[in-house]
Automatic annotation (TrEMBL):
It is found in: Cell membrane. It comes from Candidatus Allofournierella pullistercoris. The chain crosses the membrane at residues 34-55, 67-86, 92-113, 125-144, 156-179, 241-260, 272-291, 297-318, 330-353, 359-379. InterPro entries: MFS, MFS_dom, MFS_trans_sf, MFS_Transporter. The keyword Repressor does not apply. It holds the Pfam family MFS_1. GO terms for molecular function: transmembrane transporter activity. SUPFAM superfamilies: MFS general substrate transporter. This is MFS transporter.
Length: 388
């Protein structure tokens, strides 16, 4: 039963990843049809992320009332409905409205599953959980690219992902008896509000940990949202090719997380995080240099591979650096911060791209890498006396 529940959790995380990369892959084809500037991708990203932040902050109370299984099932279903509605949206402002349920579906399930796995499972399961996210995030732009290459248009891409999401929602719904049997021992049935937001922020290293999530997710989301536009506008690739090759970044994350799950058996998580920073720096350098297109594509893969261990290892370290009692509240703050970084900084880059062009893409990524590395080094200094 435990293994069947893990399968359901993994499938739920695939569903979380599927919509995350679609906007960046589809946007080069979307904005000319919607007759809006290229920077308007940032507006949609802001609305999606704000909705996700809201649901993340409310997640403790919602999960305590409904349970992880039901929250997960209804969240996946809500996202499926939003994706299908996106496929028939006929204007930018209609899509802005639909972006609200698009984002609301992600926050609660993200917090619940991360906190549950961080407390109840070994580090390798956290890496493999996020590998499932990468699998979904890799499949999204690939499917969108196939639809664009077949001249079926970006709405067909959203429609295809929406139906896949519906199928995953069905699987989670029929798995609810497994969640119900496990629910009494899950963390959300402890008092999730035992520590207030303010009390968590006062813990040594908590602010630095939260900012790690902000800047890391700023880097990751900027890659996902703007890599396609960078390949199209700065490297001269066609729209359908750029959409497909954006999947290389997410493929790097997926493969890297599968391998880092095994690596955690021998290598400390803090070393995996530091190594990830170094690999990202190499990938950004490849993107920055005037190299042939095939090497630029290798840069996307390298950056994804470097990103692989950072988020799951940081999540898994949360109850170890702080405490299981603080982790539920702190996890909500971390994921909210992650989504704040995900919409604010890519939107800032959208402004830069509109003013000075997408060639600033690698420079912006490097700035985010420096900031997350600084926050992580500060965090380690503050929590160095605590068990890892």
């Amino acid at each position: 039963m435990v293994h069947l529940l893990l399968v359901a959790i993994y499938l739920a995380y695939i569903s979380l990843g599927l919509p995350d990369s679609l906007l960046g892959a589809a946007w080069p084809a979307m904005y000319p049809q919607l007759v809006v500037p290229i920077s308007y991708a940032g507006i949609l990203s802001v609305i999606i992320s704000c909705s996700t932040v809201l649901s993340s902050l409310l997640s403790g109370r919602i999960i305590a009332r409904l349970g992880t299984g039901r929250v997960t099932a209804f969240s996946v279903l809500l996202t499926a409905g939003a994706l299908l509605a996106f496929s028939v949206g006929n204007s930018f402002w209609v899509l802005c409205f639909l972006a609200i349920p698009y984002g609301l579906g992600a926050g609660c399930v993200d917090t619940a599953l991360n906190n549950y796995v961080a407390i109840h499972y070994e580090s390798r399961h956290m890496s493999w959980l996020h590998c499932m996210w990468g699998l979904g995030a890799s499949a999204g732009p690939y499917i969108m690219g196939q639809m664009l290459a077949a001249s079926k248009g970006w709405p067909s891409g959203y429609r295809a992902i929406g139906f896949i999401q519906l199928a995953l929602a069905f699987v989670v719904f029929i798995s609810l008896p497994l969640w119900d049997k496990k629910e009494p021992t899950t963390v959300e049935h402890h008092d999730a509000s035992k520590l207030s937001f303010l009390a968590c922020l006062r813990l040594p290293g908590a602010v630095q940990m939260i900012l790690c999530f902000f800047f890391y997710c700023a880097l990751e989301q900027t890659m996902g949202l703007w890599a396609g536009s960078y390949l199209t506008l700065s490297k001269g690739m066609t729209q359908d090719a750029a959409a497909r090759f954006t999947a290389l970044f997410f493929a790097g994350i997926t493969v890297g997380r599968a391998l880092s799950g095994f690596a955690t058996l021998r290598i400390k998580e803090k070393h995996l995080i530091s190594g990830g920073f170094g690999i990202i720096a190499l990938g950004v350098a490849v993107l920055l240099l005037p190299l042939p297109p095939v090497l630029t594509l290798a840069g996307l893969l390298i950056v994804g591979f470097g990103c692989a261990p950072i988020y799951p290892c940081l999540i898994h370290l949360t109850p170890h650096y702080f405490s299981p009692q603080a982790s539920a509240t702190l996890m909500g703050l971390q994921i909210a911060s992650a989504y704040l970084g995900s919409f604010s900084m890519p939107s800032l880059f959208g402004f830069f791209a509109n003013q000075w062009g997408t060639q600033l893409f690698p420079v912006f990524l490097f700035a985010m890498l420096v900031l997350v590395g600084w926050m992580y080094a500060w965090l380690l200094k503050l929590v160095s006396a605590k068990p890892q």
